[in-house]
């Protein structure tokens, strides 16, 4: 099987997350996408929604698509082991006979190339990646400008450009909720109702 590992805060999960995962599955002929919510202990994440709420919303959002599956591997990792390199190592052991691809946006490629990710060099050396376009980022130039990335560029970076630069951020949705806005149709209806029922994101940021 070919499996995409889609890591994000999912705070909350949005319709663009789902559309992106479906498009990646189709274009790259993946059999499954693992939705991997970020651990709250990560130093590079600032999360508002608790683990339970974010996990429940991912479950609600992906319930109707058999290609999609929740993984709490990062959330449940020991302190210090919650970063992507360690998570991918554990997932390789769980899926020893499958091909794993870490799915990320071009902005993350920039961060890894700059050396700001924990064990970023080993992550790049040992795994394959599907990289999604982001507005204003030239993925090929990003790879060529980084010694870390260009010296590992043996086909492990699968760039998905055309039509994947749609931007609706979780931050925007949280801001709308906190200011009494109406982001209802930017996320799955089940997740919108969950947020309203539990009063999430109601405090101003």
TrEMBL record:
NCBIfam families assigned: nicotinate (nicotinamide) nucleotide adenylyltransferase
Catalytic reaction annotation: nicotinate beta-D-ribonucleotide + ATP + H(+) = deamido-NAD(+) + diphosphate
GO MF entry, a single one: nicotinate-nucleotide adenylyltransferase activity
Enzyme's top EC category: transferase
Organism of this sequence: Alkalicoccobacillus gibsonii
Ranges of residues in domain Cytidyltransferase-like: 5-175
A Pfam family of this chain: CTP_transf_like
Family: Belongs to the NadD family.
Sorted UniProt keywords: ATP-binding, NAD, Nucleotide-binding, Nucleotidyltransferase, Pyridine nucleotide biosynthesis, Transferase
Metabolic or biological pathway: Cofactor biosynthesis; NAD(+) biosynthesis; deamido-NAD(+) from nicotinate D-ribonucleotide: step 1/1
Superkingdom, natural source: Bacteria
EC number: 2.7.7.18
Encoding gene per record: nadD
Name listed for the protein in its UniProt record: Probable nicotinate-nucleotide adenylyltransferase
Role played: Catalyzes the reversible adenylation of nicotinate mononucleotide (NaMN) to nicotinic acid adenine dinucleotide (NaAD).
């Amino acid at each position: 099987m070919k499996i995409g590992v889609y890591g994000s805060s999912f705070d909350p999960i949005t319709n663009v997350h789902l559309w992106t995962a479906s498009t990646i599955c189709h274009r790259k002929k993946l059999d499954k996408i693992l939705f991997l919510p970020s651990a709250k202990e990560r130093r590079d994440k600032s999360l508002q929604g608790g683990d339970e709420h974010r996990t429940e919303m991912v479950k609600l959002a992906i319930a109707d698509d058999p290609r999609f599956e929740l993984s709490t591997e990062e959330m449940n990792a020991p302190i210090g082991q919650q970063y992507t390199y360690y998570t991918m190592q554990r997932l390789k052991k769980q899926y020893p006979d499958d091909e794993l691809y870490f799915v990320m946006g071009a902005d993350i490629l920039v961060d890894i190339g700059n050396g700001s990710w924990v064990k970023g060099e080993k992550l790049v050396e040992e795994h394959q990646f599907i990289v999604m376009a982001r507005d204003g980022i030239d993925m090929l130039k990003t790879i060529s400008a980084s010694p870390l990335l260009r010296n590992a560029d043996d086909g492990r970076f699968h760039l998905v450009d055309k039509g994947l630069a749609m931007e609706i951020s979780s931050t925007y949705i949280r801001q709308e909720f906190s200011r009494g806005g109406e982001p209802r149709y930017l996320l799955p209806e089940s997740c919108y109702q969950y947020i309203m029922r539990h009063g999430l994101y109601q405090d101003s940021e």
